């Protein structure tokens, strides 16, 4: 297949390709694509997977002021196998043995595949479809294999708003009520007491969305839960925290938005804004993917029927 990416003049083309086409050579080496310049655009040819990877690399290089070959190489680190001997892998003793997660529906299967094949995935669907749990399972899988060094779990504390500072205790105590579902998912995969130790050593970080500003996260699996309660500005801020060799999963239910009236949801906006961007996928789960108690599906059906009326 062939895809093209527009270039804003010779100067940008030179910046993207690098001195003596070194950046271009790195991209071709990592993906195996053919690249030509025609009619002022970069044209990329190859297999669908290779072209998607190359297009994603060029798109990211556009955001780097003066990209170097090392910058290009880092874009592909996330798909490299772990080092021989698993020297970066987390010791298996901290994980519960025999805990395996399989897709329970076609939608969940696509969701897990999208996470494997893309650097950023948005999962949108009703309660009970496994959005958060499956994302956490993938984060643990990546950590066990040594593909990432840390897991960062983020949630907007909408109900607390600006009042977080007036609550007693340190930041962990303030936001615990809003992050409890993520704790529960993690404890499924970890031996007793390991979650606290991993939080204390910063291997796992659980924090409110507001505390992400100004950071860049390298070699991390980052999950934003309850993303329907982010504003447009917060969503942009979060997505731009992504560093090299990192992966982001954003989950949310756009039928349960708790933002103040007049505040549009960043998750709804991003559906159109980022549609078709290479390296990024949207997974839409439905009531057919609900795996909780059968009553949950009946409750979702009842609310949908009421809304249509």
Report on this structure.
The chain has 309 residues and is an alpha/beta fold. The protein has 2 domains: 74 residues, K Homology domain, type 1 (Ribosomal Protein S8, Chain: A, domain 1), CATH 3.30.1370; 217 residues, P-loop containing nucleotide triphosphate hydrolases (Rossmann fold, 3-Layer(aba) Sandwich). It is 39% helix and 15% strand. It has 11 helices and 9 strands. The strands form 2 sheets. It has a 6-stranded parallel sheet. α5 runs parallel beside α6, α6 crosses α7 and α9 crosses α10. The chain is globular and about 60 Å long. The chain starts with a strand and ends with a helix. About 6% of the residues have low confidence.
Q: Per CATH, what is the topology of the largest domain?
A: Rossmann fold
Bin the strand percentage.
Answer: 15-25%
| Count of DSSP strands | 9
Low-confidence stretches: 78-89, 160-164
- Output the CATH homologous superfamily of the largest domain: P-loop containing nucleotide triphosphate hydrolases
Strand order of the largest sheet: 6-5-7-8-4-9
Question: Would you kindly provide a brief summary of this structure?
Answer:
The chain is an alpha/beta fold and 309 residues long.
């Amino acid at each position: 297949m062939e895809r093209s990416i527009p270039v804003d003049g010779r100067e940008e083309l030179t910046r993207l390709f690098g001195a003596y086409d070194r950046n271009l050579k790195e991209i071709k080496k990592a993906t195996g694509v053919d690249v030509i310049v025609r009619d002022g655009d970069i044209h990329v040819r190859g297999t669908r997977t290779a072209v998607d990877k190359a297009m994603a690399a060029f798109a990211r290089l556009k955001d780097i002021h003066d990209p170097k070959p090392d910058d290009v190489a880092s874009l592909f680190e996330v798909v490299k196998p772990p080092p021989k001997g698993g020297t970066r892998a987390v010791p298996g003793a901290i994980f519960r043995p025999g805990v395996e997660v399989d897709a329970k529906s076609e939608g969940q299967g696509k969701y897990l595949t999208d996470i494997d094949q893309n650097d950023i995935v948005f999962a949108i669907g009703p309660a009970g479809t496994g959005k958060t749990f499956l994302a956490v399972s993938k984060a643990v899988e990546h950590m066990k294999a040594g593909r990432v060094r840390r897991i960062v779990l983020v949630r907007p504390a909408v109900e607390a708003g600006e009042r977080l500072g007036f609550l007693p205790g340190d930041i962990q105590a303030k936001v615990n009520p809003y992050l409890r579902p993520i704790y529960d998912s993690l404890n499924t995969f970890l031996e007793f007491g390991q979650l606290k130790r991993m939080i204390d050593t910063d291997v796992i970080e659980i924090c409110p969305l507001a505390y992400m500003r100004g950071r860049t996260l390298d070699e991390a699996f980052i999950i934003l839960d309850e993303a329907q309660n982010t504003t447009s500005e917060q969503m942009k801020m979060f997505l731009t925290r992504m560093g090299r060799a990192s992966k982001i999963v954003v989950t949310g239910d756009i039928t349960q938005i708790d933002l103040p009236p007049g505040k549009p949801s960043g998750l709804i906006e991003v559906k159109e804004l980022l549609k078709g961007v290479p390296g990024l996928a949207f997974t839409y789960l439905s009531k057919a993917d609900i795996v909780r108690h059968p009553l949950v599906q009946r409750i979702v059906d009842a609310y949908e029927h009421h809304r249509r009326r």
